[in-house]
Amino acid sequence: MARHLQFSSSSIKLCVTLLLTIFACSMATSYSSCRPKETKMVVYLQDNGPASPYASGVVSAAPDNSTARGYILTTDNRVTEKVSNKSCLVGRGLGIYTIASPDGNDVVAFISFIIEKGVFSGSTLQMQGQHSQLDKVREYAIVGGTKKLRYARGYVILEILYVNNTTFYAVGKSTLTFQYGCTTY
Ligand SMILES: *[C@@H]1O[C@H](CO)[C@@H](O)[C@H](O)[C@H]1NC(C)=O
Ligand SMILES: *[C@@H]1O[C@H](CO)[C@@H](O)[C@H](O)[C@H]1NC(C)=O
Ligand SMILES: *[C@@H]1O[C@H](CO)[C@@H](O)[C@H](O)[C@H]1NC(C)=O
Ligand SMILES: *[C@@H]1O[C@H](CO)[C@@H](O)[C@H](O)[C@H]1NC(C)=O
């Protein structure tokens, strides 16, 4: 019995040593030899505005006033390959936008870009940031990704190309620049 216990404890020590070695090796790998892949992607966000079946205000202090603090818009927008909304669908932009500042100007946005076409099909990119209602060009951080795009990080420049002031239909050009593939950078 005693011998058996002794055997167990030394084999535990061995495992711990082995684990530490593996951990040290993998840390060394990620710092020195992991080169993240860098990708640039241009897609177009077809924003149907608050009055479409693709979007709806949910828990909102001011459901009908998109410049009032507390207004919350959820979106399920089409993302296309070209500027025309009839061009090839490459994915969807699921988002939550809310007015954060008392003057109604500052928006906080959280967007999941669900990719449905191409090499990253089935993967997602997660973006978040702040913009002013008046900004024609916005920048959000890409803070992560899933599946093939795990550990993604970078930024997206969203340029508003067109807004219909009656329907709020809008088209934005999104230029995404990001790295992925390494656990540390
Ligand atoms: C919407 O909210 C803003 C900011 O609180 C306010 O100035 C404006 O009068 C409101 N508009 C309407 C139509 O209630
Ligand atoms: C496409 O854009 C036009 C305006 O350019 C708009 O009237 C139409 O509703 C849009 N179609 C879709 C499917 O969003
Ligand atoms: C805005 O959309 C409406 C409805 O689709 C359309 O009748 C109108 O011409 C559009 N306005 C502009 C400036 O494109
Ligand atoms: C739509 O509204 C914006 C902001 O108020 C304004 O700058 C723009 O000229 C308007 N566009 C049209 C076609 O009326």
TrEMBL record:
Keyword Secreted in annotation: yes
Q: Where is the signal peptide?
A: 1-28
InterPro entries attached to this UniProt entry: Allene_oxi_cyc_Dirigent, Dirigent
Q: Which GO terms describe its cellular component?
A: apoplast
Q: Keywords in UniProt for this one?
A: Apoplast, Secreted, Signal
User: Chief location of this protein?
Assistant: secreted
Q: Name one Pfam family in it.
A: Dirigent
Cellular compartment(s): Secreted, Extracellular space, Apoplast
Keyword Secreted found: yes
* Any one GO BP annotation for this protein: phenylpropanoid biosynthetic process
Instruction: Please explain the role this protein plays, according to its UniProt record.
Output: Dirigent proteins impart stereoselectivity on the phenoxy radical-coupling reaction, yielding optically active lignans from two molecules of coniferyl alcohol in the biosynthesis of lignans, flavonolignans, and alkaloids and thus plays a central role in plant secondary metabolism.
Q: How does it assemble?
A: Homodimer.
* Family according to the record: Belongs to the plant dirigent protein family.
Q: What is this protein called?
A: Dirigent protein
Classification of source organism? Eukaryota, Viridiplantae, Streptophyta, Embryophyta, Tracheophyta
